[in-house]
Every structure is written in C-alpha cells, then in structure tokens.
Amino acid sequence: KETKLWGGRFEDSVSDAVERFTESISFDKTLYKHDIMGSRAHAEMLQHQGLISEEDRDAILKGLDEIQKQIESGEFIWRVDREDVHMNIEAALTDLVGEPAKKLHTARSRNDQVCTDLRLWSRDAIDSIVSHIKHLQVALVKLALENESLIVPGYTHLQRAQPVLLPHLLLAYVEQLERDAGRLLDCRSRLNFSPLGACALAGTGLPIDRFMTSNALGFTAPLRNSIDAVSDRDFVMEFLSANAILASHLSRLGEEWVLWASEEFGFIIPSDRVSTGSSIMPQKKNPDPMELVRGKSARVIGDLVTLLVLCKGLPQAYNRDLQEDKEPLFDSVKTITGMLEVSADFADNIKFNKERIREALPAGHLDATTLADYLGMAFRTSHDVVGKCVAMCLSRNSCLEEIKLEDLKNISPIFEEDVYEFMGVENAIKNFSSYGSTGSQCVSLQLQHWVRNLHLD
Ligand code: ARG
C-alpha cells in the first residue's frame, strides 16, 4: 500500500472499511477542473511571493496541464486509496514531476482548497442554470406569441374564476422564472469570494498574497475571516434554496400541464416527442416528462434539506461532515438542469386545443365579476345582485348572457340594454384595464416587455 500524503505520524494503515467509507473520489472528481484552476493560481502566487522557484512553478503548471489532459481523455486513473480529488491530483502530479509537486501544498490545506473548488464550481453551475432558465422563458414567450388572443378559463381553488388571456397565464411563469434567475445571481455574487489561503482554519505565517489568487480566480475579494472561510457552506445552502424555489415553480407548471393534457381538461395536446405510452394499455399517451418535473422537484427540495440538517450542528471550523455537501449539490444542479431542459422541450411541443377551450368557456360564469363591476353599486350590493343572477342561471342551467333583460330588471332595475356588452368572456376580457391585468392592451405590453428583455425582437 502507498503511504498516504498525510501518513507521517501513522504506523498502521486504515482499514478497508474506513477507506471505502471516507473516500469522496467517486463523486468529487467532478471538481477536477476547478481544483486544477485553484492549484494553478496558487502555484503562480507561491512563485510570485518567492515561496517556490520559477522552475518549480513551471514544472507544476506543466504537470497540471498534462493531468488535465489525461483526465479529459479518460486515461487518468482515479484511486480510492488516494481518497479525494485533491489528493488524487496532488499525488499524480508528484508521480509525474517529482519534487516540485511536493511544494504545491505550501500554505494550503484541503479545507480551503475544497471550498475554493466548490465556489468556482457553483459559479459555473449557476451561470449554466440561468441560461437554461432563459431558454424556458423564451419557449413560454413563444407560446404566448403564437396564442396572443386565446382566452382560457382562469382558476382559483381549481374552480372556474375569471377569463384570462393565455399569454397572461404563461407570462406569470416567466415572471416567476425571472425571480428565480435573480435569486441565483444574487447567490452567485455573494458566494464569489475566495477562501484560498485560509489554510486549515487559522491562515498562515508564510508571506502569501490572498488578493493575488482571489483576483486570478475571478473572485471579488478574499474572505475576511479564515475560520469563516473554511467552515461555512451557507453558499451551498443558498444555492440549493434558490434551486428548490425554482423546482417548486417548475413543479407547478408540471402539475398544470399534466392536468391540461387530461381528457377532462383537454386544453393541450402534447406531441409524440414529449409523450410516452403504457406497457399494458394500448391507447395511452402520457405526459410523463412533466410528471417527472413535478416528481423530481422532491429531490431538489430534499437536497436543500440535507444541507440544512448537515450543517446545523457543526462547531467551527472544518468538520469532515462537510464532505457530505457535494452529492446534494451535484444532484440538485443535475436535476434542476434536466427539469428546465425538459420543460422547455415540452413547451416547444404542445398545441393548445382551441376548439376544446372555446367549448369550455361558457361554463362556470367567468363573466360574473365583470358584471358586478358593471352595476356600479356599492360592491357588496352588486355582488349580491349578480349572485342572484347566477342562482337563476343555475336553476335554468343557462349562462348569464342568456338571461332576458326583464328577468335581470326583476333582480335589479339598474340593468339596462348595454349590460350585454359586459357579458360573455370576450366582453369580460375587453373590460380589464388595470396595470398588470388580463386586458388585451395590458397583456400586449407585458409581451412586448419580454420580447425585448429576452431579445426576441
Ligand atoms: N474530501 C474532503 C471534503 O470534501 C476534503 C477536505 C478534507 N479535509 C480534511 N481535513 N480531511 O470535505
């Protein structure tokens, strides 16, 4: 057995069970690129500060290039007995370039190294998720543009409420996604500080320059407190919180589209490209991708909970428990990325069943609230009057616009001939005019905003 990099004081080697239990290489090799990035910046700084020679630095940088190539071509052998990504790369570098590699870990600990890697990795992951959010927003705005004047029933409590324009509903998701992207970018700017040089927890007496490595790695500044730097994973919790909120939005979209694809609603027709069948029922065509978007939100929320529970009992500073931050982080990013991709794909592959939606509109008295506004009485009185009209409809199985003027006048003398301009979903939509409402002009302003914002013009 190879001696561990930390093996100096040990007489015996760890048991196989401990080795298997404590390793993280099986998952943290994902960090290799960012680990190498951090090592490059660290080696440059060590040389600049006179802590290693130019020759040592060059040997290290060349060796790191070679290792990166080997990893990317699949030649590199990841060894469980070398525990994690940091020691695998350092030990391989030593195999490759010898003595100079042994100087790379000067004024560095795996404790500052691992959270440097994680912050760099998270930064890239956030950029990628935000660009996936934009793609989904574009897909939703395109659907809105294609169905600009389509009226659909709006629901509260999943009961018929008021008519809305379909773009209005779709743009509600676009707004929610925009805040999701905003939360991720806020998190990005808060996490973009450098732990490198915090070493194990207390910093170092060697003349390092933390500002130099921070700059080289594109961080805003070095973290001010070395104990804080190695100890906290609040940036992971914040990232996973933003993902969990995003996942809950996507899950609601999933739920809505699954409902809308059902025979009972029949409002959307997903294409074969985004549907799957049943192994027993030959007629089935299921909206599985959106069901799984709903389902996988559970994992993303679970990943956040794992992190919160993981960290809540830890004393300062680094504790090995923190190694458990990685799988939830990686899982959350991978899962949310898939959810976003598939939601955009689904949006690109559905048609709205206009016929079915039109047939559905007369049910549920969607125009009742508009009618109450028409009456112009104290609202509670209008509410009561229209309530009586609805009761009349229910007893006759008719809609509001089918009630004769004399019957209306019997309920309230205020009704006049022009009341019919306020009934029916088209008229109801025409009547909306408040900022942010579902009136055609207002929705068209919203659409223009998103066309510009997403560069679709
Ligand atoms: N694999 C470890 C982790 O992910 C790296 C840091 C280990 N540090 C230590 N002192 N054992 O957290």
Overview features:
457 residues, mainly alpha, Fumarase C, Chain B, domain 1, Ribonucleotide Reductase Protein R1, domain 1, 18 helices, 60% helix, binds arginine
Largest sheet: 2 strands, antiparallel
Number of strands: 4
Radius of gyration: 30 Å
Outline, from the CA principal axes? elongated
The N- to C-terminal Cα distance equals 64 Å
Number of helices: 18
Which oligomeric form is depicted? single chain
Percent in strands: under 5%
Quickly give the structural class: mainly alpha
Domain Fumarate lyase N-terminal: 8-302
Keywords: Amino-acid biosynthesis, Arginine biosynthesis, Lyase
Protein name: argininosuccinate lyase
Catalytic activity: 2-(N(omega)-L-arginino)succinate = fumarate + L-arginine
Describe the protein's architecture and organization.
The protein is mainly alpha-helical and 457 residues long. It has three domains: 100 residues, Orthogonal Bundle (Fumarase C, Chain B, domain 1); 237 residues, Up-down Bundle (Fumarase C, Chain A, domain 2); 95 residues, Ribonucleotide Reductase Protein R1, domain 1. 60% of the residues lie in helices and 4% in strands. The strands form two sheets. The chain has a two-stranded antiparallel sheet with strand order 1-2. A two-stranded antiparallel sheet has the order 3-4. It is elongated and about 100 Å long. The mean pLDDT is 96. Arginine (ARG) binds next to α6. Belongs to the lyase 1 family. Argininosuccinate lyase subfamily. Keywords: Amino-acid biosynthesis, Arginine biosynthesis, Lyase. This is argininosuccinate lyase. One of its GO terms (biological process) is L-arginine biosynthetic process via ornithine.
